[in-house]
Write a structure and sequence with these properties.
single chain, 2 domains, 624 residues
């Protein structure tokens, strides 16, 4: 049975699917507004029918002001938002929502404040000089971080009169979500999947149910990776029986079009392009017209460069979201810049002083039919499977080619598994956010086709599904990414730093790495501001032999522990079991390190980010 349609609504709002896939792809963020079936909050201007009937205007009206209450993605604010209007110092009752109409009969001054839960408030002054032309109104923002503010002037028929209509489009900045990122869409069904057993069995169901297309992005691919491993039969299964549940067999048997992107290391289609894929997958890429397409993608980032988030123009988002905006005459608006400061990044400083393309496309996600998406930290690789129990002796974690004898020896606790216990997460998503996951794949896919990389001659394009309806009772979620040039997206960084700036009670980090100076500086600042704020970090033990960045982890933890000895808490995950021995003692206790591969950030039970972005600077600066 497909997992589709049987998920309960998540209790939190997500902001980063790292999607923050580590986003890498994806950030799922927290906003507590549920979307009811008849609720249009969060729809685009076009969806909400903003060309609503205009209210009556006085006979002596010279012009009309239309104020549109939006967020920075040109979506309507939630219905419980508030707009307060004063005219020449006197409060007036505004009419309409989310478009408010204010007639002008002479020189006057409007003061407007728009507030919404989870957003920075916006205060505007609208100065009307009493003329009826396009220069009759000037709009000023009073204070705050850069917001969306676009103004248009048009001559239209209003209540039977030809009047100048001044459109004031106000876009509020969200406190948690990334302004630079894709829309923080409402009405999504989101479930956190806490093990490879759960995530990959659901993925297998979705692949089996696919009708149109399957898009997969992974950093590492093994064709014999088993998605489904039955606890009762797997240890006794033959290789041929287990082959039926491998990713390659499941895709081969699907009638849907398959497109697979796999990360490469140290240059595009170079000498080491084979390391992260295998011959079976490359064979599919070589065959034209078989409905199974494959390309690799390397991350070209190297050297020294200036890092900052790319600004955007609010008017561009209006034009993208609302067809009538094409007929409006807009004033030139100011660019909206991120609140995250820029900095110099030097990739020659570690681990060797040379310009090498050591970064990767680290995103792990899949979409099916443009209707469901799964985003997280798990590769299609033998180590990326475990259960929630993280057993020391788990025969299903044996390599694909392990013998039945070896599997049964593990089941009998006579030998340990080929791979240690593994902790990681995936997000299962339905609703409008799925189009954003698919769009990330499309952008990368089309770029590789345009570049003419290996096997691109055997690939095809596809159309996005963009009409996904909000799910009643769903949550607000945002897909955030780190993407290097030429895409230049860093919404994971903005979202994480937003979340730290909002923290009141606790910050919880569970990650494969913990050496992220940019985030650490923000945590130190926030903990100084909030004397009751606790920091909990779960990360693996650092080995000075195998971990080239161990010194940075040591310094990160040392700085925090020195500053907040009673409020900074670190832990490691281990599994325990016993094993019979033939020595003096009959049993031996075993503590085994859990291979922690998670990339999770939570704040105050309000925000959760899950994806493929590690807590290191590269995860939010240049690692995809």
């Amino acid at each position: 049975m497909s997992y589709r349609g049987f998920l309960s609504a998540a209790p939190l709002v997500l902001a980063a699917c790292s999607v923050s896939s580590s986003g890498d792809l994806y950030t799922l963020e927290a906003d507590t507004d549920a979307v009811e079936a008849d609720d249009t909050s969060g729809d685009t201007a076009e969806d909400t029918g903003w060309e609503q009937a205009d209210t009556d205007v006085p006979d002596d009206a010279l012009a009309v002001i239309e104020i549109y209450a939006l967020d920075l993605w040109a979506q309507a604010l939630p219905a419980d938002s508030e707009m307060v209007v004063f005219q020449d110092g006197e409060y007036i009752e505004p009419s309409g929502w989310p478009k408010v109409n204010l007639p002008i009969t002479g020189p006057t001054l409007f003061e407007v404040e728009i507030t919404a839960d989870g957003y920075e408030p916006l205060q505007l002054v609208i100065d009307c000089n009493g003329t009826d032309g396009p220069t009759g109104v000037q709009v000023y923002e009073l204070y705050g971080d850069p917001v969306g503010l676009s103004v248009s002037h048009d001559q239209r028929e209003v209540d039977g009169k030809s009047l100048t209509v001044h459109g004031v489009f106000a876009g509020l900045r969200h406190k948690w979500f990334s302004a630079q990122g894709r829309p923080a869409r409402r009405g999504n069904q989101i479930d956190l999947l806490t093990s490879g057993e759960e995530a990959w069995s659901i993925a297998a169901d979705e692949i089996w149910m696919a009708d149109d297309r399957i898009n997969i992005s992974t950093w590492w691919w093994e064709s014999d990776f088993e998605l489904v491993r039955d606890p009762w039969t797997h240890p006794y299964s033959t290789e041929a029986e287990r082959q039926q549940n491998t990713i390659l067999t499941l895709l081969d048997e699907s009638y849907a079009d398959k497109r697979v992107l796999v990360g490469q290391w140290l240059g595009q289609d170079g000498l080491l392009d084979w390391v992260t894929s295998d011959a079976d997958l490359r064979d599919r890429g070589e065959q034209p017209g078989d409905g199974f397409e494959f390309m690799g993608q390397a991350n070209p980032t190297s050297g020294v460069f200036w890092f900052e988030l790319t600004p955007f123009w609010f008017s561009d988002r209006l034009l993208d979201q609302w067809t009538p905006a094409f007929d409006r005459n807009f004033d030139a608006d100011n660019a909206v810049y991120s609140t995250i400061p820029g900095r110099v990044v030097d990739l020659t400083d570690w681990p060797v002083t040379a310009e090498v393309e050591a970064a990767s496309y680290h995103q792990k996600f899949l979409t099916v039919d443009g209707e469901v998406a799964m985003v997280g930290g798990m590769n299609l690789r033998h180590v990326d499977w475990d259960t929630d129990e993280h057993l020391v002796f788990e025969p299903r974690r044996m390599n694909f080619d392990a013998s039945m004898t070896d599997r049964l020896d593990v089941a009998d606790k006579e030998q340990q598994t080929d791979s240690p216990p593994r902790k990681d997460y995936m997000m299962y998503m339905q609703g409008p956010i799925v189009q954003d996951v698919d769009q990330v794949f499309q952008e990368r896919w089309d770029h590789q086709r345009w570049m003419g990389v290996d096997y691109s001659e055997n690939t095809s394009s596809f159309e996005l599904v963009t009409d996904l309806a909000p799910i009643p009772g769903g949550v607000q979620a945002q897909l955030t990414t780190t993407l290097p040039a030429p895409f230049n997206e860093n919404s994971i960084a903005e979202t994480w730093l937003n979340a730290i700036a909002q923290a009141e009670d606790y910050i919880y980090i569970e990650d494969q790495y913990f050496r992220i100076p940019m985030l650490t500086d923000a945590i130190l600042t926030r903990m100084e501001q909030r004397p009751n704020l606790e920091l909990i970090v779960i990360t693996p033990e650092v080995s000075e032999v195998t971990d080239l960045g161990c010194v940075w982890t040591y310094l990160t933890a040392g700085d925090l522990k020195y500053a907040f000895p009673d409020r900074f808490h670190t832990f490691q995950l281990k599994s325990f079991d016993t094993q019979e021995t033939w020595g003096i003692d009959e049993t031996e206790g075993l503590f085994v390190d859990i291979n922690l591969h998670s990339k999770m950030l939570m704040v105050d039970d309000k925000f959760m980010s899950v994806g493929s972005a590690n807590k290191n600077n590269r995860g939010i600066v240049y690692e995809a």
